[in-house]
Structure formats: structure tokens, C-alpha cells
């Protein structure tokens, strides 16, 4: 009833009734309970601001403080109760796993004693909120970050991605920040990335299939920087009404247009002296496709409901933006501190020099 009412609000009662009859309604008519395909939006009904979840149902999250090693500030050691997770199986070729292979994964994928073709990925990387601080130098606050890249752990994918300097400084409300971002080939296939399911079956996709239990993928929004065949297989329109095609998104030499990079790229802006992230936009897209049926030849896994749906077409489900910015009060405090450093540091240096001279004279 909940699904039907949501569907009716978008498409009308008649369409909703037909949809429910061929999905949830099958539970009553033939004893088959068929949930709607991924992509339908509905509220979870959970509001943790009103009722906190039972603590016993929550996994443990452990991060390093950096007290023993500043380069490890905020690094995950444990995420949602696990420290290592199986993420991929070597299939021997660059292809999607079959439904049978996905189903079998849960029965033998064990990182305590993994078989040879399993890739287990250790929990590592940070949430991107801080780097090792550059601190204060004789010239004032450090002008360069202490690292050129860092690994950002993605809990849902159970891997990390590398976020690297873009060799660009940006101004954020009067504060100079160093911009970091993901490389354009972040989801491209290489011998190394193939071990975790990246670039399979084409560049621009990272496989989530063995993690989620069905054919699913992570990518940039609208498959940016991915194989253009992904754009040709579906029709996507952005909020401006632009149909997203290779011609509208890329220039003649295949470079993504700046407007799309700005709107859909991932970036992290870091202040070098404190090492703190002052502004960030993390953008990603999740897609799925239908695997071939295990019982009916030349049909998809949906053969009982929608027998003509094609298999292994990557269908965008949603794209999400995680955004964060330092509050005005934080920026004001930082700028006040910066002013104090610029004001008192020269005087402090003079006092030190005078003190050394006096000691030398005596």
C-alpha cells in the first residue's frame, strides 16, 4: 500500500494499481513476492533525531587520532564493525559477474582464510576532513599542504579512492585553500584496479555487485569521464533540461567541459596551515543492471515480470552530492588567528634575535 500510494502520487491511481498488481500484488496471487526494481524513492520512516537507534544494532567505527603519527589523522581502522571486507572475485576476463556467481559469493567469500581469486580490502583511508597540519613557519602560516594526495574511504563500496592535489589555489571567503580532487581516470581499468572491480565492464564504472548482491555500479554523475557507450545506452536529462550526451558534455578533443566538471566533479578544499578541509563536494552516482536469468535462456532475471527487459544495460538509479563548508564563525576565527600570526611573528623573531645577541654579549 505504501509503494502504491507513492507511485500514485507521481503517475496516478490507475497506473499505480497496475504497477502494484505486477509487483507486490503477486505475493497474494501466485505466492511470489516481487519488490519493485531499484530506483523507486520512498521514505525509510526512520528519524534518528526523534528516536535514537538501539546501540546494539550499530557497528563500531574506529579512527586514529593522529597523536602518534600526524600523517594518520582521521584514518579509519574499523568501519561499521569490520576491518577488512571481500570486494571482488577474479573472473578471468573483463565482464560482469553472472547471477550465479554473485549468489555464490556470500557462501565462500571469507577474508579470514580467503581463496586465491578473492580480493579482500582492508579498511583504511580517511573521511577527508583533515590532513597533517603544515603549521606556522618563519614566514607565517604554511603555504603548502603536507601531502599531495590522500585516500578517502567509501564505506558503502568498502574501498577507498585517491584524492590528489589539482595544483590550484581557490579563495573561500577571503581564505586561501588548496584544491584536491579525483583524477579523470579514477574509474578506469588497469591491471591493479581490476583486482577490486574498477573499469569493469567498461571505463567509468566501479563494480559494487559482490558487495550489494546484484549487478550495481558506482561512477561519476552522468558517467562523467566514463566510456561514452554508457551515455548511448540510456537517455539522461539534467535539471537544466539538457540531454546528457557526449556531444553536449565534451569538447572536440574529449575533455569534459568546465561547467560539467564544476557541477558534477568531486573536490576537497584544504587550508594548508591547519590541514583542515574548509569546503568539499563529493559527488557520485549509483546504477544497476539486470543480470541474465538462471532459468530461462535469453531472458533477464525479471523474466516473470518484464520478460523483454534487456540485460546488462547500466541504468542510473540516482546521483548524490555530499557537501560541507566551514561555518562563518570558523572562518572568522581562522582569519583572526592568521592576523595575530602576521602581527606578532615579526616581533617575536626580533625578540629572539635580541635575546640571542644579549646572551652573546654577556
Automatic annotation (TrEMBL):
Which terms does the record give in the GO molecular function aspect?
scavenger receptor activity
One GO CC term on file: cytoplasm
User: Which family does the record claim for this protein?
Assistant: Belongs to the CD36 family.
Entry protein name: Croquemort mating protein M82
Provide this UniProt record's keywords sorted from A to Z. Answer: Glycoprotein, Membrane, Transmembrane, Transmembrane helix
Pfam families reported for this sequence: CD36
Which InterPro entries does this one have?
CD36_fam (IPR002159)
Taxonomy, top ranks, is: Eukaryota, Sar, Stramenopiles, Oomycota, Peronosporomycetes
Cellular compartment(s): Membrane
| Parts of the chain that traverse the membrane | 343-361
